[in-house]
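Protein in question kept in full:
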Amino acid sequence: MADMHGQVALVTGGIRGIGLAICERLMNRGIHVAAGYSSNTDAAQQFADKYADHEVSIHQGNIGSAQDCERVIGEVLAQHGHLDILVNNAGITVDKTMRKMTPAEWDHVIGVNLSGAFYMSRGILQHMLDRGYGRIISISSVIGSAGGFGQANYAAAKSGMFGLTMSLALETASKGITVNTVTPGYISTEMTAAVPGNVLEKLIGRIPVGRLGEPNEVARVVEFLADPESGYITGQVYPVNGGLYM
């Protein structure tokens, strides 16, 4: 593993769940982390206080807004001076069958989960091109590969990340920039903790390894892809799902 001390990473949705695990692993490599969040100001401040010794920063914004994405990137560059790693982790769900899903609910999930990854990636791209280096990693989902009942908007957005990743990887492969996607399965987070026990048991019963994944198991793949020594890996999709989708 290469020395990553002094690098800077922006992780959207970085103050809890998988995003928090990613931030912690990157911090342990000596990386200065900028964590994006949407509205949970208290949790964001707790994050900033807890990891103050690691020179973290927090940045509020709506990734479904191109203007917010540009502003947050500007804040990170102003505070840290440069940006080496972008992790597109933030996302939302509005689950309904297609018959009941409104166009606004479709647009909202696509706008945050897919357009947000585009806005963030586009916003930092010129900076990375100018420096001749960058790592862009997006967090998709097993639902993007397999689909999900009542999740047409979420599945379409997460599947769309594959095409976004491969296209941007082709455009930047000769420029020192790699672009990859990680697709978690069912991970032990606040979201799965809210699933009723009997439903969760059925979900776990479908997973060949027989358990939920841990956020750190996703974060370690992100850390691997963010490493300078991973420069020959681009345009790839890395499943972390316990064999749920093969």
In short: The longest strand covers residues 177-184. The radius of gyration is 17 Å.
